[in-house]
Amino acid sequence: MDPAEQVIVVYGPTASGKSAASLALAGEIARRGRRAEIITADAFQVYRGMDIGTAKPAPGERGGVPHHLIDIADPHAPEPFTVDDWLGRAGACVGEVRSRGATPIVVGGTSLYVQAFMFGLFEGPAADPALRAELAGLSPDQLRAELERVDPAAAQRIHPSDTRRTTRAIEVFRLMGTPISTLQTQWEARSPRSDARLVILSWPVEDLNRRINARVRSMMEAGLLNEVRGLLARGPLNRQAGEALGYKQLIAHLNDPRRMPLDEAVERIKIETRRFAKNQRTWIRRMTPFARVLSGGEGAARALEDLAG
Q: What are phi and psi of 66, to 5 degrees?
């Protein structure tokens, strides 16, 4: 593949070092006489003001490399930012970056975004307003129990707190009589886009869990609680933004400190983030046949060098 025509996709679980790897890759591309620009594939870094808890690279941490699709949505807007929104903008960004003679590097840990970019977007039935209204009347626990009953495979992949995707999976089953996991398996059998090189960063589970715990501690020390307070002072977050790891647990603490003490909220962040990483590993196994898998740490940085060629 002509390096000038390729898109490099860097994917991995949370806390796996994707941002550092993508910057190292951009630097290696620059040393070889070309330029690179980063397109972020993260469902929560799109939101303005959600910085610390999403591990959003600050402007001073971007190494002079242009970053796209960060801070493009309002977390208080009634309508959430969807995978369709991201995919359309990402496609436009790829074209714009190439028009400048640069290499696009798509980086992120939102599995559905990466899957959609590599294989196209799964086309299910249109939303049914009456059914959505019925499901909205169920509690999160009731929705989860229904998903586990009709589609156990999807329940393994969808985070228990992700009511949006849980609702959609139940809706697809009700409308089509086929589990969404079955339909997505057919979708995932597609060949990946021919211009993309997928790189997956992998860590041993124990090491990754330690990195996650350390990241949560550093986020709290950096002022995540105050960031959440500031966001809530401007109004409630929309349904999607309010489900973000770290934000959801600290919102629960601020709403009812007696029921959710701060130390318990922080521990819940660690537990839910480790569980989220486990779900990401399921997606990774599915995409591994189409990817180059790199071990985390310095080995990954060295191995990225040949991708810059």
A: -60, 135
Tokens (6 digits) for 1:
């593949």
Q: Please state the length of the chain.
A: 309
- Amino acid letter at 284? I
Distances (CA, A) of 38 to 25, 172, 198: 10, 34, 14
Residues 7 and 76 in one domain: yes
Per-residue pLDDT of 211-228, as tens digits, reads: 999 999 999 999 999 999
Instruction: Please state the pTM of the whole predicted model.
Output: 0.82
Examine the pLDDT at 159 and tell me if it is beyond 90: no
CA distance 156 to 59: 36
Domain around 200: 3-120+190-308
**280 and 168 inside one domain:** no
Query: Positive or negative CA dihedral for 81, 152, 159, 107?
Result: negative
CA 166 to the chain's CA centroid: 16
d(CA 75, CA 61): 23
Confidence of residue 247 (pLDDT cuts 50, 70, 90): very high
Q: Which two tokens stand for residue 112?
A: 């559905």
What is the rounded CA–CA span in Å between residue 237 and residue 247?
Answer: 10
State the Cα angle at 70 between 67 and 76, rounded to 5°. Answer: 170
**DSSP codes joined into one string, 223-272:** THHHHHHHHHHT-PPPTTGGGSTTHHHHHHHHH-TTTS-HHHHHHHHHHH
Say how many domains are in the chain: 2
Nearest in space to 112 (alpha carbons), one of 126, 122, 123: 122
The Cα-based distances of 72 to 78, 82, 88, 129 in angstroms read 15, 12, 13, 28
126-163-283-63 Cα dihedral, nearest 10 degrees: 100
